[in-house]
Amino acid sequence: MSLPSTTDRPGPEGGPPPESGARRHSGGFRLPWAFIVLVALLAAGRFLLAPYLTDPALQTWATVFVAVCVQALPFLVLGVALSAAITAFVPPSFWTRALPRHTYAAVPVAGVAGAVLPGCECASVPVASGLMARGVAPPAALAFLLSSPAINPVVLVSTAVAFPDDPSMVVARFAASLVVAVLAGWIWARFGRAAWLPAPRRTVGTGEGKVSAFLDAMRHDLLHAGGFLVVGALAAATLNVAIPREWLTAVAGVPVVSVLVLALLAVLLSICSEADAFVAASLTAFSPTAKLAFLVVGPMADLKLIALQAGTFGRAFVRRFAPLTLVLAIGVSFVAGWTLL
Amino acid sequence: MSRQTQGAVLLVLGATLLSISAFSTTYLNYVRPGFRPLIVGAGAVLAALGLLSVVADMLGRPRAHDHGSRVAWLLAAPVFALVLVAPPALGAFAARRDDGSPARSRTAAHDALARSGVTELTLGEFIGRAYAPSSPTLAGRKVRLIGFAVPGEGGRGWYLTRMQVRCCAADALALEVAVHGAPAPAEDSWVAVTGTWVPWPDGVPDEYAVPDLTATEVSGIEQPTEPYE
């Protein structure tokens, strides 16, 4: 796990190429042991354990856990496929033409471009990784990573539906999220070090190699990022069932604390960015600024996302990037809440 | 983790996603109905990728150098949760934990309800109408509501409840109506309640309060295929 996710991918330049090296014909047919063992375990568990797993708390936990996984997996598959396609099929020259050469100018352009990926945050992590592999400057790719789950049309429409009497909430969410994404990109451009990110992915050869590289990249990223997604889902489900909601109403009236509490709640609950506006709207006891912080922090730094980033970009990266986005998101929410709401 | 193991995990996960979405309606316990094509697609991609790896390995095809991380084993966790616990739709346990108030659409226009006969309403619409600022479209009208029973704390009364889900069960909110004039059914049992709304004593309240309903008939029903509103 400590290995950066992209360095152990097979490729023509690094490690033995799939076609020529490491050719191990073990001579004929081998049983798929791993598959047989997995299915046997599932079948045995179904008959031996299942009758005892009926506690309502456990069932509620399992429902939320499975729900987060089932909801996020299609977006992860989509993001991984897009990322693998970007690395395998889009030439690097495309990005140098599409984005301004200067990194500080490329950051806001990439941030606004986040609006075109309609999906939740799980898709944006692998896509940002694919962009970096194709030569897009990391600060620009990170601005895209942060802005895309918060400012795409699907999310803005659902925010408008959740706050029917309050169109300024949509404006504030859009503006605050974009500002946080651009600021984070610029700060990373000024202070970030290349060593905190994994080495760029190697480019892919031509012909048949492209398709097999595409499939290998997809399989690798799915397993790796998917494993971390499950870590995030486990944590989110546990906290979802374990946090007593009465604690929330107790602090709702306190000015600054209530904003910090909702920001923390957004981190812990890891609700999909397409649905978080409805949850925010239901927290009626809280101030609009607190709700805005919930909407800005959630798509940028929730548990599920932090786990995914750790899996994709490595721990050295996430140890610096997650606190940076969290502090920026809370700070910008305060300012936007005072000026816009 | 060998390529064969990686393939096995992907195949089992993909097959599970397909079985809860393409071949049954179990997925409705976890996400909105609109997610079906996405889940079927993801399941098919995962299963195909897994199958490719497993078959390539069975036939002894050359291996790319693979040392995928152990964290990938965790992808089997949702499969085990689905097969061993078979998590049902959120019920009374989740509803009791939620004390937020549902987001009400105060601006939505409401058509007048039929003066005679019974109108079937969702809990969300019933609560929305109860909070409509001007026209008392509910007063005196007979309505039929569907939900599960949540007995009140300390055996006082009971609530007809349904969870409202916008994306997945992690964002569920409880819609509740307090039912009067009928004994509490068993916890988590699904019922259809026919009755009339009890008007607010002093106009629409500012703070959210659960609306009341006087029941004339309570009958047990099967859990709907779509458990959430």
TrEMBL record, chain A:
One of its GO terms (cellular component) is plasma membrane. Keywords: Cell membrane, Membrane, Transmembrane, Transmembrane helix. The keyword Transmembrane applies. Residues 1-23 are annotated as: Disordered. InterPro entries: DUF318, UPF0718. It is found in: Cell membrane. It is a multi-pass membrane protein. Its main location: membrane. The chain crosses the membrane at residues 31-49, 61-91, 103-128, 140-163, 170-189, 222-243, 250-271, 277-300, 321-340. The keyword Glycoprotein does not apply. Belongs to the UPF0718 family. PANTHER family: UPF0718 PROTEIN YCGR (PTHR34184). This is Permease. It comes from Nonomuraea deserti.
